[in-house]
Design goal:
By secondary structure, the chain is mainly alpha-helical. It has ten helices and two strands; from the N terminus they run H-H-H-H-H-H-H-H-H-E-E-H. The mean pLDDT is 84.
Length: 210
């Protein structure tokens, strides 16, 4: 095959991959994860379902690739790792705050990420590849922070509690505005939450050896 033919095939491959990933997003956003399936995705993308297996190894592989673009902790490692490596000790506390506050903003504004978490919390065991990718990438970020922070063995529990609180509050307030008398339909409540997240990180660092 000529070099030009190789370029055309590569461009067609990338276009098909993009169409499949866009189809996943469209189905999740409009119908939720319950409607995800090979046939439905292929129909929406306008391609043969065999390409899902050829390019991604199957549905789970396609969803893992989708998660790398839409699941926060599946891509947060690549976005923050260089910043962490270049940082001095005095900057690390702010980096941790940035990671967590960005999680809050991303989840609050991203319906796809919300639908993913709702699906997982509903008890469905399928699509484990997404969970594994998030845990792998998210924990890699935690491990890097552990190397630089030196804040004791319980810092992972502290971070996990903040991550979990963010997820719960955002998902709960999709349907109900108030938690413990706090009205999250008001912007100032989200501002208070960000302030408290920052204070928790301050507390973690205050009990560190840095």
């Amino acid at each position: 095959m000529s070099p030009l033919g190789d370029i055309i095939n590569y461009m067609e491959l990338k276009e098909t991959e993009k169409n499949l990933l866009d189809a996943v997003s469209h189905i999740i956003e409009n119908d939720g994860f319950t409607k995800i399936g090979v046939n439905r995705i292929a129909n929406k993308a306008g391609c043969d379902k065999v390409l899902i297996y050829r390019y991604f190894g199957g549905l789970d592989g396609l969803l893992v690739e989708w998660a790398k673009r839409h699941d926060y902790y599946s891509f947060a490692y690549s976005e923050f790792i260089e910043t962490i490596k270049r940082a001095e000790s005095k900057d690390l506390k702010q980096i941790v705050k940035d990671v967590l506050i960005r999680q809050l903003h991303y989840l609050k504004d991203n319906v796809l990420m919300q639908e993913l978490l709702v699906w997982e919390l509903s008890g469905h065991s399928s699509f484990k590849g997404i969970l594994e990718e998030r845990e792998r990438s998210g924990y890699k970020l935690q491990e890097e922070l552990n190397r630089y922070l030196n804040i004791g063995n319980d810092n992972d529990i502290s971070i996990a509690m903040i991550i979990s609180a963010i997820n719960y509050i955002v998902l709960f307030t999709r349907q109900y505005h108030k938690i413990n008398g706090i009205d999250f339909s008001k912007p100032e409540s989200w501002g208070r939450l960000k302030t408290v997240i920052s204070k928790y990180v301050d507390f973690i660092f205050a009990n560190s050896s840095l």
